[in-house]
Write a structure and sequence with these properties.
This protein is mainly α and 124 residues long. It has one domain: Aldehyde Oxidoreductase, domain 4 (2-Layer Sandwich), CATH 3.30.365. It is 45% helix and 10% strand. The chain has helices at residues 9-36, 71-82, 99-102, 112-123; strands at 50-52, 58-62, 90-94. The longest helix is centred in the first third of the chain and has 28 residues, at 9-36. The termini are far apart.
């Protein structure tokens, strides 16, 4: 008869949270990547998140709602960093709630950074 695995309640809970988080990320990343591929009609609009004006001002959309965690700055900073943009020329605007355009827009549970870190770097 096989030996029983000694598994504490805490270890089981940690494993459940990690696997659930991984599952959530694996579902969200493709949606955000698809949203990044959406292109605008205006001249200088690179995708749903980035527009470059004639004066080299870069407007970046902060897609997640800002509730005091700094996400409205952090996500556009990832994009600007990948573009090697001069932060003095970056303007941030709050995105609307169009999930088809921007993907999931969660504000709670510290999901915004891990769900968007890689996709936002790809946007830039």
């Amino acid at each position: 008869m096989p030996e029983a695995i000694a598994l504490s309640r805490r270890t089981l809970l940690k494993a459940s949270v990690l696997s659930g988080g991984g599952l959530a990320l694996s579902a969200a990343i493709p949606m955000v990547a698809r949203a990044a591929a959406v292109t605008g009609e205006a001249q200088g609009t690179l995708n749903a998140f980035v527009t470059i004006a004639a004066d080299n001002t870069i407007t970046i959309v902060g897609k997640n709602p800002e509730i005091g965690q700094g996400i409205k700055t952090m996500l556009p900073m990832l994009i600007a960093d990948e573009m090697d943009a001069d932060w003095d020329q970056v303007k941030i605007v709050q995105g609307d709630t169009d999930a088809a355009k921007y993907g999931p827009q969660l504000a709670g549970g510290s999901f915004a950074t891990p769900m968007n870190w890689f996709p936002m770097r790809q946007v830039g």
